[in-house]
Amino acid sequence: MTPEIGHYAAALALVFSMAQGVIPLWGAHKNNPLLMNVAVVTARFQFILVLLAFICLILSFVASDFSVALVAQNSHTLKPLIYKISGVWGNHEGSMLLWILILAFFGLLVGEFGNNLPPSLRARVLSIQGLIGAGFIAFLLFTSNPFIRLDPPPLQGSGLNPLLQDPGLAFHPPFLYLGYVGFSMAFSFAIAALIEGRVDPAWARWVRPWTLVAWTSLTIGIALGSWWAYYELGWGGWWFWDPVENASFLPWLLGTALLHSALVLEKRDTLKSWTILLSILAFGASLLGTFLVRSGVLTSVHTFATDPERGVFILLLFLIVLGGGLLLYAIRAQSLKVGGLFAPISREGALILNNLFLATSFAVVLLGTLYPLLLDAFGAGKVSVGAPFFNATFVPLMVPLLIACPIGAKMAWKRGDLSGALSRLKAAFAASLVVIIFSMLLDENRSLLAAGSLGIAAWLMIGITLDFLEKIGLPKRSAGEVFRRFVNLPRSVWGAATAHFALGVMVAGITVSSVWQVERIQIMRPGDKVEIGGYTVLFEGAGQVDGPNYTALQGSFSVFRGTDKVTVLLPEKRSYPAENSSTTEAAIHTNLYSDLYIVLGDTDQKGGWATRIYFNPLVPWIWVGAILMAAGGAVSLTDRRLRVGAPRRAVHTENSAIPQEH
Amino acid sequence: MKTVIFLLFFLVTPALAIQPDEILEDKVLEERARVISKELRCLVCQNQSIDDSDAPLAKDLRVLVRERLQAGESDEKVIEFVADRYGDFVLLRPPVKASTLTLWISPIVILIVGVIFLLMRFRKQEKNMPVKVPPLSSEETKKLEAALGEDKR
C-alpha cells in the first residue's frame, strides 16, 4: 500500500506543479491577485505531496519491501539502517525524487516567506519553479518511476554498491542537490525579471540568499565527495578531474562568479545583463551535470542510468530549460540599461576581473570534460582529457585570480586606488616573499612552482587578515572603537573574509600535500617497521573481522613517534557477499597538520602483506579550508540586510507599461 | 541493467595500483616511471591513470613502462611507444594536433576575447561619461578628512 500512496502523491504533485506553472504566470500577466496567489497554495501542496512520496519510498526501503523493484535492486535486509535510508538516494530514481523534493522545498520557502517580494515577481518566480518541477516530476513518473512493483518479489535484495555504504557519501548527494537545485532559484528569479523587464539592486538582494544557500551547500557537497574519495579509494588522492567531479565543479565555478557579480548589481546597479546570464547558466550547468550523470554518456560510480530513453528525456528537459532561458535572455537583455559608471580600477573592476577568470576557467573545465564526447560524436577520433590537461590549464587561470583577491577586497567602489591598496598590503607581500624563500631553502627539489603557490597562500591569508584588521580599525583606533566595529561589522564582511581566508588555507593544503607527499609501498611481515614523516609504523599482523553485512581483512599497525605510541591504525579490505564486491578502508591518523594514511593490500601467501603507507602533509587543510569556506557562506547568509529592511523598490510614477530601468 | 551494475562494480573496485614487486631498485628510474604512469590512461578504467589503477592491463602497462626505461629510453620515447601501440586514447594529456587544437588554445583565446570585450566596454563607457571629474588634490583630501573627522564610520 505504501508505494501506491507515494506513487499517487507524486502523480498528484505533477498536476499541482503544472497548475503552478501556468495559472500564476497568467495571473501576473493579467495583474490578477487571485490567480497570482494560486502559486502560494500550489507550492505548499506540491511540497507536501512530494514529501509524502519521498517518505513512502523511505518506508519501503526501511521495511525492505522487495516487491518494490527499486528496493529489490538497491537494498538488502542486512544493511545497517542508515544505509537503507541513504540507499533511497543511492540510485537514479530515488535521487531524482530527492532532487524534486528539494525543488519543491525551495518553492515552499518562496511561497511562505516571500512576502517582501512584489506579488507579480513572486508569482512569476513560483511559476517558473512549477514548470521546472513539472518537467522533472514527469521525467520521474514516465521514465524513472521509483514505485514500480515486482511480481513475484525476490526474497532478498541485491544490495547497494558498497562504495556508497559510507557516512561521507550518505550525505554527499543531499548537499549536492541543495546546491544544484538552489541555483534553480537564481534561474527562476532571472527569468521572472526578464519577463518583467526589470533588474535592479532590489532584485539582486532578493536573489542573494538563494544563491548563497546553493553555493554553500554545493561547497559542502563537493568537499564531502572529495573527502570520501580521499579515504575510500585508497591511493591518497582527493581530486581526479573525473568528468563527474567536474560536473559538480562547473556549477560551483559559475555560482561563485554569480555571487560576486550580483554584488556589483546590488551595490552599483550595473552588470545587469551579465548577472542574469550567469543566473541562467549556473542552473544550466547544474542540469548539465544531472544530464551527464544520468544519460549514460559517462560511466563511473555516480552514473545510475544508462537507459537511452531517460537520456533523451533529460537532454530534452535540459535543452528546453537552458534554450528557453537563453532565448528569452537574447530577446530581453537589450532592454536592460547599463547602470552606474565606474573606472576600470575599482571594486567593480576587480569583481569583473574575478568573473572573467572564473568564467574562463568554467569554459576550460567544460570544454575539457565534453571534448572527448564531442570528438567521438563527430567521429574525429578518441582522446582522453585527464588531470594533466586540467592542471596545465586550470591552475594558471587561478593564479591571477588568487593574487588579485586581497587587492580587490581593498578597492573602493567606483574609483579605486591601486597603489594605495598595494601599499597597505606591503606586509602581506613581504610575508609571502619570506614564505617563498623559506620553502625554496627547505625543499630539496627547489620547486619554484610549490614555493610560488605557497607564497600565494600566504599572500591570501595575510592579505585578507590585514584587510579585516583595517576594517575594524586596527591598529589606529582605540580599543573601544575597535570592539564596537568588530561587533557591528556586517556579517557579509565576516563571511567574505572567512571564505577568502579559507581559499588561502586550501591553496596551502593542496600545494603542500601534492608536492611533499611521502609514499612507501612494500611487503610487510608482522614485526616489520617503516619510518615515514617522523613516525615509525610497526605492522602487528592481519586477521579477519566481521561487519554487519561484510567480512573484512583487518591489518593492525602500531604508530610510534620516537618511543611514544601514538595510535593503532586498522585499515581494512572489506568484501560484501550480497553485492559481490569489495572496498578498501584506509586508516588515517590526523593531527590537523598532516595525515598518516595506511592501506592494506593483498597477501603474498607467504605471511607478508602489501602495504601502502603515505605521509600527507597539510592535507587536512584542504577540508578545513572547505569547511571554512562554507562557514563563510553561512555567516554571510545571516547578514542583516538579507533578514530585515526588506528592500522596497522605489515607487515609480512613470507609465509602467514600459519596462523601466534606472 | 544487472550487467551494467555488475560492470560498474568491476570498474570501480578500489585500487591498490602499483604493487611492491613492480618497483624498480633504481630510485631515479622508478621516480621517472611514476611520473610517466600518471600521464597514461588505464584503458579499461573510467578516467584513471595506470598509476592509480589496479586493473591487470594497467599493471602490464606499468611493467612495460619500466622495461622501456630500463632499456635506456627517454621519457618521451616511452610515452610515444605506448601511444603508438594504444592510440591517443591512452594519453591523459591529449597531444596537440589538428583535432585537439581547439581544446588547447581555447583557454587563452577565451581569456583574450574576454579582455578585449571588457576593454571595448570601458572605452565606450568612457565616451559616454558626462564630465571628467578630476580627483581631489591632496590638499582637498586633507580638508575633507578634517571635515569628516573621527566620527565617520
Radius of gyration of chain A: 27 Å
Cα end-to-end separation of chain B? 65 Å
Number of strands of chain A: 10
**Can you say what the CATH homologous superfamily of the largest domain in chain B is?**
Cytochrome C biogenesis protein
Sheet with the most strands, sense and barrel status of chain B = none
Number of helices of chain B: 6
Average of per-residue pLDDT values of chain A? 90
Straight-line N-to-C gap of chain A:
58 Å
Shape of chain A: globular
SS-based structural class of chain B?
mainly alpha
- SSE pattern of chain B: HHHHHH
| Beta-strand content of chain A | 5-15%
Q: Taking all residues together, what is the mean pLDDT of chain B?
A: 80
Helix content class of chain A: 55-70%
Helix-strand category of chain A: alpha+beta
Number of strands of chain B: 0
How many domains of chain A, as an integer?
4
| Oligomer status | heterodimer
Polypeptide structure, described:
Chain A is α+β, with helices and mostly antiparallel strands. Chain A folds into four domains: 1-165, no CATH class; 169-377, no CATH class; 390-515 and 621-629, no CATH class; 518-619. Chain A is built from 21 helices and ten strands. In chain A, strands 2, 3, 4, 5, 6 and 7 form a six-stranded antiparallel beta sheet that branches. In chain A, strand 9 (594-603) and strand 10 form a beta hairpin. Chain A is globular. Chain B has 153 residues and is an all-alpha fold. Chain B has two domains: 2-95, Helicase, Ruva Protein, domain 3 (Orthogonal Bundle); 99-148. Chain B is built from six helices and no strands. Chain B has helices spanning 2-11, 27-37, 56-70, 75-86, 101-128, 138-148. Chain B is elongated, with a radius of gyration of 29 Å. At the A-B interface, helix 13, helix 14, strand 1, strand 7 and strand 9 of A face helix 1 and helix 5 of B.
